[in-house]
Write a structure and sequence with these properties.
Layout (H helix, E strand, L loop, with lengths): L4 H24 L4 E4 L1 H6 L6 H9 L5 E3 L3 E4 L5 E2 L13 H33 L2 H6 L1 E4 L1 H36 L1
């Protein structure tokens, strides 16, 4: 099977562009982590009693979705998370920023895992197993876009490595002639 260098270069460019677009969309959106409490709010206290339903309608819904830069609740404005790069008098080198970004992403992952564990612990303390069925905690489509970007970046690297191999083989053939 003969592989054309132009096809490999086109594949690398296409997957690289797709990776960038997906990563930009993932970073810019706020649906990495979703907490949906709609079923709990519909079936909770006061759901059947009209007198309590009036009081319950004044309570703020607990549902939210979070991104890398802010957390948004259903009927409230989004609250920004702290960004260490916004300080005016602080200067970071590029390598320090990359390291800080890596540590921040690791911290977000630990926070998400801790939140799920804390929620399960609260359920055990409250001994309400049905609560877990009524609150939906999941990762959102922004995380899926991040994973698609990662896979596309791996494919881009594989296409570049294959193109380098094709060029190497062509040079050997040209030198042999």
């Amino acid at each position: 099977m003969r592989v054309h260098l132009g096809a490999l270069a086109g594949a690398a460019a296409l997957t690289g562009a797709l990776s960038f677009v997906h990563l930009a969309a993932a970073i810019g959106t706020d649906f990495w982590y979703i907490i949906d409490t709609e079923r709990l709010e519909r079936s909770g206290p006061g759901a059947r009693d009209p007198a309590e339903a009036a009081n319950r309608s004044q309570l703020e819904p607990l549902s939210s979705h979070s991104g890398l830069w802010r957390t948004c609740r259903v009927q409230s404005p989004c609250a920004p998370l702290m960004n260490p790069f916004w300080q005016e008098n602080v200067t970071f080198s590029d390598s320090s920023r990359q390291l800080l970004t890596l540590v921040t992403l690791a911290g977000i992952s630990v926070y998400i895992a801790y939140s799920a564990a804390a929620f399960r612990e609260a359920l055990c303390l409250l001994e309400e197993k049905a609560l877990l069925d009524q609150v939906d905690i999941r990762f959102g489509w922004s995380l899926a876009l991040g994973w698609i970007s990662f896979i596309a970046e791996l494919l881009t690297g594989a296409a570049f490595l294959a193109a380098a191999r094709v060029l190497s083989l062509r040079r050997r053939q040209d030198q042999a002639i």
